[in-house]
């Protein structure tokens, strides 16, 4: 009798554990996470853009300086995710590439714009899915690219199209002297 009770209790425990397993595994093995981006001190109306989980470019407006110092977005885990923020009448650009940074800065805007451009245009012109494009672009060293972009004084004068084509083709080599030859006139 005692063995039957213990056996029944074990079955109930196993059933309970197995019934909770999908709940825990969906949290543990989720391919998505929530990222928080810290904005710089901005005042007034701002807009920001990113590519959502479906590969669609999204634009949103916020009022900076009234408690909106953080932007929360759902992103795919272990995949570079660009965010661009435009502020003021001049539409000054600020950017970040998560997970390499969560701080939105003017210095990272160019690198974020390159990645956003690749995401928003490249996969629509190919036979690959958005997930395949994300996977391919995750092999590029975005952290080093961001670091090097910060060192170039007039980064926005570089030929963005040539840089994006070279990254997409897998032929991009960061040699500042060669990149500067591609400066738009």
Model description:
This protein is α+β, with helices and mostly antiparallel strands. The chain has 6 helices and 6 strands. Helix 2 crosses helix 5. The longest helix has 27 residues, at 2-28. The N and C termini lie far apart (90 Å). Mean pLDDT is 79; it is low at 23-27 and 180-185.
* Gap between N and C termini: 90 Å
Gyration radius over CA: 22 Å
Side by side, the strands of the main sheet go 3-2-5-6
Largest sheet properties: 4 strands, antiparallel
In the predicted model, the low-confidence regions spanning at least 5 consecutive residues are 23-27, 180-185
Task: State the helix count.
Answer: 6
Strand content: 15-25%
Q: How many extended strands? A: 6
Q: What is the H/E string? A: HEEEEEEHHHHH
Query: Based on CA inertia axes, which overall geometry fits?
Result: extended
Structural class estimated from helices and strands: alpha+beta
Question: Overall mean pLDDT score?
Answer: 79
SSE order and pairing:
Layout (H helix, E strand, L loop, with lengths): L1 H27 L3 E7 L5 E8 L5 E8 L5 E7 L4 E7 L4 E7 L10 H14 L7 H8 L4 H9 L9 H10 L6 H5 L5
Antiparallel strand pairs: 1-4, 2-3, 2-5, 5-6
Helix pairs in contact: 2-5
Quick recap of the structure?
It contains 6 helices and 6 strands. The protein is α+β, with helices and mostly antiparallel strands and 185 residues long.
């Amino acid at each position: 009798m005692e063995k039957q009770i213990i056996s029944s209790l074990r079955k109930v425990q196993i059933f309970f554990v197995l019934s909770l397993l999908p709940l825990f595994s969906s949290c543990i093995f989720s391919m998505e996470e929530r990222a928080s981006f810290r904005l710089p001190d901005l005042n007034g109306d701002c807009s920001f853009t990113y590519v959502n989980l479906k590969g669609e470019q999204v634009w949103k407006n916020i009022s900076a300086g009234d408690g909106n110092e953080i932007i929360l977005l759902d992103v795919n885990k272990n995949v570079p995710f660009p965010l661009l923020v435009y502020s003021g009448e001049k539409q000054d650009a600020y950017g970040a590439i998560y997970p390499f940074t969560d701080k939105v800065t003017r210095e990272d805007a160019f690198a974020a714009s390159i990645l956003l451009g690749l995401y928003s245009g490249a996969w629509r012109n190919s036979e690959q899915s958005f997930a395949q494009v994300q996977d391919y672009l995750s092999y590029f060293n975005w952290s080093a690219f961001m670091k090097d972009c910060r060192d170039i004084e007039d980064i926005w004068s570089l030929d963005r199209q040539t840089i994006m084509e070279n990254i997409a083709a897998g032929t991009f080599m960061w040699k500042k002297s060669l990149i500067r030859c591609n400066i738009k006139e």
